[in-house]
Amino acid sequence: MLAAPFQAEFDANSQEFSFAGVIRPRSVDEIAHSISMFRNAIDEARGVLYINVKRLAQMNNTAFHAFSRVVLDACRTRSDIRFVVVTSSVVGWTERMFRHLGKIEPQIRVEVYDSKFYPGQSFVEDTSFIPILRTQTKMTWRHERKILPRHGMRPGIVMADICCGIGDFAVLVRKEFQPARIVALDHSKASLAYARDVAKNFGISDIEYSYGDASEMLLEDNQFDLVTCRHSLQIFNQPDLLLKELYRICKPGGRVYITNEKNSHCLGEPRAQSIQWTYNEVAKLFSHFEMDVELGPKSRRYLADAGFDDILVESFMVTNHDGDPQDFADVITAWENVYAGEMAVKRGDPAEFIERFRQGFRDHIFAALHPKGYAGWPIWAASGRKPL
Amino acid sequence: MNAAQRQPAEMKYEPLLQFEMEMGTFLSDWQHCDQLSTYMARMISHNRTDPLRHSNFFSSALNELLEVSFRGGSPEGRIGCAVYRQGPKERVKLSFPCPPGHQQFFREAVARTHRNDAYARYLDALSSDLGPSREVVLLDLAINFDAEIRLEEEAPPSITIIVDLPLEGIVS
Questions:
Q1: Per-residue DSSP letters for A329-377?
Q2: Domain ranges across chain B
Q3: In the CATH scheme, what is the code of domain B15-171?
Q4: Tell me: the pLDDT tens digits for A330-352?
């Protein structure tokens, strides 16, 4: 759990009072300052005051009762104010404990924040996408297994795979590199259920799959030798926030390893122009949904801005010649279905655009399956060391 | 016949982890509650479906129990805490010395967790101006953690609280 002392902060702009960390005082006197801050925040607030407990790892009854009293008292003296308590589905006890306040006072509403972390998550959470995710990992693993040791992967380490998806990367890493411990975290319950099922079928019991929000994890500070986060910063609307969390849980001297794409650089021959047009449009489409699938080459900047040193960036090209070209084609088909079939429709694109958009994917498949063709999907792998 | 003897035959609870220490040492630092609950939660949760979240839940419940023993225990004697597992449940067995008369208090508080008005009492307690009593803490465990709580009678001055926590089902 969070080892840092607890934090209580008020953001007047958003009228949000946040609690974070572990709050287990022996007496109310120990948290008197925070209670006073909380009272002042309520005095200052107009309309709705948000009480954010998403990062509240622990709160004992003494503190819960004291802070609840302040809210309940305010409800009785101020009919003009309402409270929205924002809990997290990750920290389950907060939801169970705070919900009672809404039963006591109708001015208090309790909301569970759980499904809006990644704007793109809903697009890839569909279980029909799982076989493609497995194929993608199989294709990238051929490259990553060779380059990972340069980024800090070695036997016996303690590692975390954040945004682990269906968990196949963790399984491959476990087999190839034998880390001492792997924590694999994701915010998709469907993906985690699949991951656990696969692990069970393979008799793997030592990967700790955990449900969590990558931008606000329950994991302690400074505990992993290596933190991996693959293809995720690019589909997160605040990659710097996510990177900050990866930095936090990494040990000083440990490394954070990220992979991301630059989708507009997907390529193929023949029919290069059509392919290039479509992937340029893919980048614009993701941008519309607040995701940056052009992030790959920006990895160095992101890592530097997050405080890492000894930054190492490299790229590799997954191609139709890496294995079975049909695998490559299957992945592109899945992309076409999600990007052109779902995302473009949701953006409201006209039929003519979607047809041209689809054609580029079909041409990419054509290139992949052509006996003399070449189809590529470039990926940037980068890591940085957390300073000692 | 005491509460323990009244329990129907049940599947065996496997021992997982236990600690025992001088009560005086335990009472010397409030942080022991947090440290012990965090450590024990992490240890016993490692092979649960979601170790991190299970640990978070379990630590929360165990800390409350340890705080009860901290606030209500007497310095002579030893505190012992053992955790057992049976399927999706963990059982916490917490024994500690307490002042004369407190056994009766705990007996009544535990009995109230089984009454139909437990939730109403809990909401009343949240609404009241008083801080949380030991009774409220036990109600909290029963209501928010679906805990089954009972006492195992021991010769005074010791008391043993047994709490069954079906957290695996809640977490996963």
A1: HHHHHHHIIIIIIIIHHHHT--HHHHHHHHHHHHHHHHHHHSTT-EEEE
A2: 15-171
A3: 3.30.565.10
A4: 999 999 999 999 899 999 999 99
